[in-house]
Amino acid sequence: MIRIRPEKPEDIPFVRVINERAFEQPAEADIVDKLRLSCLEALSLVAEDESRLVGHIFFTPATIDSGSGIIEGMGLAPMAVLPERQRQRIGSALVEHGLKILRERCCPFVIVLGHPGYYPRFGFELASMYGLKSQWETVSDEAFMVLMLDKARMEGVSGVARYRNEFDEAM
User: Fold this and answer.
1) DSSP 8-state code for residue 67
2) Which residues, including other chains, have CB under 8 Å from residue 1's CB and lie 6 or more apart?
3) Which of 63, 163, 84, 75 minimizes the C-alpha distance to 119?
4) Closest CA to 59 of 26, 16, 94, 85
């Protein structure tokens, strides 16, 4: 039985391993480590199967510079599941649980740079449909998505969506 819970300090080395194994490189794990130190507003959740961690998801503050002001929301990145545990709905459980918490916190939007065949099942749509574009010009339109959690507050908002600066190194 998978249980989703907030990350604890003793989880940190295991979260690093999950990200390194899932992405087959240390870049995402390095970003998580840096953000954990610099971003107190982050939401870090783990998926636990009995007493073993099998997945991790990280949400950090993101902004939209709408021209008429800065709107603060969250960015989803990264989300990782151990390779041998993928395709078992662990990633879905992490995303759903994280989005539920963000709704409760009245977060207006969540951006994600991810697989266009995966994230729409959670309500993510092409960010370009809302006049949003990524801070990184190399990002394809299909991979950059947004979930509007507070449609009334986000009505008419468009502009450049930005993840935290720590992500620039990976791009």
Assistant:
1) S
2) 49, 50
3) 75
4) 94
Domain that holds residue 29: 2-164
pLDDT 10s digits, 122-133:
999 999 999 999
Helix (H) or strand (E) holding 30: helix 27-38
Contact status, residue 35 vs residue 62, Cβ threshold 8 Å: no
Give the global pTM: 0.94
The answer to whether 54 touches 83, Cβ cutoff 8 Å, is no
Contact yes or no for 123/96 (Cβ under 8 A): no
Q: In this structure, what CATH number is given to the domain that contains residue 155?
A: 3.40.630.30
Tens of pLDDT, residues 63-96: 999 877 899 999 999 999 999 999 999 999 999 9
Domain count, the chain: 1
141 domain-assigned = yes
In this structure, are residues 64 and 71 in contact, taking their beta carbons and an 8 Å threshold? yes
What is the torsional sign of CA 73, 114, 57, 42?
A: negative
pLDDT tens digit sequence for 51-65: 899 999 999 999 999
